[in-house]
Write a structure and sequence with these properties.
Layout lengths: L2 H25 L3 H16 L1 H28 L3 H15 L8 H16 L4 E2 L2 E2 L6 E2 L2 E2 L13 H32 L13 H5 L3 H7 L3 H29 L11 H9 L2
Antiparallel strand pairs: 1-2, 3-4
Length: about 270
């Protein structure tokens, strides 16, 4: 484990272990799984301002995409002029090219700490006891391709996890395309036309591939984090719709004669 992240991972380990102890009298064997879910949601809640800022930046980038394409077509052979025009466009819009990326980058250390916690067999030089707990008889430290095999009862738990992850990945990609289309004012392409390339279609499911080679505890973390990200995206766009369609009531105009009477008094 990286020494840079060792201290925060150790601190997170004690927090989740204490939470597991608190939940054990109520949930029994599911206490560790519940602690992973609760801790993940708590951290994602703290990071929510950064996530929403990243979503705002991505929405602005999508809205500006047609203008950026037009600038590249017009000044493609004049790199310096192109940079000036793009900088001016971002300045007018009050954003930057890093608006949708920088907030995500700031979240990376926190998310890395959680992922390392739920996949490391040892923490602070001692055994990670969280991974000795189980879900439906499957140790949280178990891997899909180890133990009884991928098509055993243990494998069935993993396959259920992968199915949930795949469903969330599909839903997230689907909603992302629809929302980006709305942000740019584009219309959805008819079925069977304009299909994206293989890499673009497969990339959203990278989380499933990561979970296939990670311990069960890390898979539960990934599932919880992905579900939270999807909920954040839906919340952001619902709030954006509400602000854009909020009725604006104009100030009533007072007839000139009434205004003069009001100013002069009875």
């Amino acid at each position: 484990m990286s020494s840079f992240l060792g201290v925060p991972v150790d601190a997170a380990y004690h927090l989740v272990s204490d939470l597991t102890g608190i939940l054990t009298p109520v949930l029994g064997g599911l206490a560790a799984v519940a602690a992973i879910v609760v801790f993940t949601m708590a951290v994602r809640l703290l990071l929510m301002p950064l996530s929403l800022r990243a979503l705002r930046g991505q929405a602005v980038q999508a809205r500006l995409a047609p203008q950026l394409v037009a600038l590249r077509q017009r000044y493609g052979k004049q790199p310096e002029r192109l940079q000036r025009e793009m900088a001016a466009l971002y300045k007018r819009e009050g954003t930057s090219v890093f608006a949708g990326f920088a907030p995500l980058l700031l979240q990376w250390p926190f998310l890395s700490v959680m992922y390392l916690l739920f996949r490391s067999p040892t923490v602070g030089g001692t055994v990670n006891t969280l991974l000795t707990r189980d879900l439906l008889g499957v140790p949280l430290g178990a891997h899909w391709l180890s133990g009884a095999g991928p098509f055993s009862a243990q494998g069935a738990v993993f396959l259920g996890l992968f199915a949930l992850l795949a469903a969330l990945c599909w839903l997230s990609a689907r909603i992302g395309r629809l929302m980006m289309a709305r942000a740019t004012g584009a219309q959805a392409a008819p079925a069977g036309t304009g299909r994206p390339g293989l890499l673009v279609r497969v990339l959203p499911y990278l989380t499933v591939v990561i979970a296939a080679f990670a311990p069960l505890a890390a898979g539960i973390y990934l599932l919880t984090s992905l579900a939270w990200s999807l909920a954040e995206r839906l919340y952001f766009w619902k709030r954006l719709d509400r602000s854009q369609h909020r009725p604006r009531f104009p100030r009533p105009e007072v007839p000139s004669g009434a205004a003069q009477l009001t100013q002069s008094g009875p």
